[in-house]
Amino acid sequence: MTTGTILIVDADREALKSLEYIVNSEFEKIITISTPNRINEILGKNDVDVVLLGTNFNSGVQNGNEGLFWMKEILKHDSNISVVLITDSGDIELAVRAIKEGAVDFILKPW
User: Fold this and answer.
1) Angle at CA 1, nearest 5°, toward 8 and 29?
2) Neighbours of 83 (CB within 10 A)
3) Pairing between strand 5-9 and 82-87?
4) CA 30 to chain centre
């Protein structure tokens, strides 16, 4: 039996489809968005258990700071939400920083 709600946020629409397919049998409700601007709205209307969160949303920006910013916003809203950062950049420094700042995991694309 599937339970819980997952929010998947990634600028790559193909990644959104893939992730939705992968987690489909594990969660009762799956919400996908391609921009983080609606995160606070969605968290306010849903009891989200897990967030899979991309690290970069603006073209040409690859430093991961956007993902870290939004992760902090999510955890401010509810520190019990498990946040997993997903990225196509294998930046070890970013991964360590993300874990230290509250991510439960860091996944490198493609999976």
Assistant:
1) 25
2) 24
3) unpaired
4) 12
Residue 71 falls inside a structural domain:
yes
Residue found by looking up tokens 């397919």 in the block: 21
Is there a domain that residue 108 lies in?
yes
Task: Specify whether the CB–CB gap between 72 and 102 falls below 8 A.
Answer: yes
Output the pTM of the full model.
0.91
Q: Which among 20, 30, 22, 25 has a CA at the least distance from the CA of 2?
A: 25
Q: Structural domain tally of the chain? A: 1
What is the per-residue burial (b if ≥16 Cβ within 10 Å, else e) of 29-58?
A: ebbbbbebeebeebbeeeebbbbbbbbbbe
The H or E element spanning position 86 is: strand 82-87
Spatial separation of the C-alpha atoms in residues 51 and 39, rounded to whole Å = 10
* Residue 24, domain member (yes or no): yes
User: Tens of pLDDT along 24-76?
Assistant: 999 999 999 999 999 999 999 999 999 999 988 876 656 678 899 999 999 99
Assigned domain for 4 exists? no
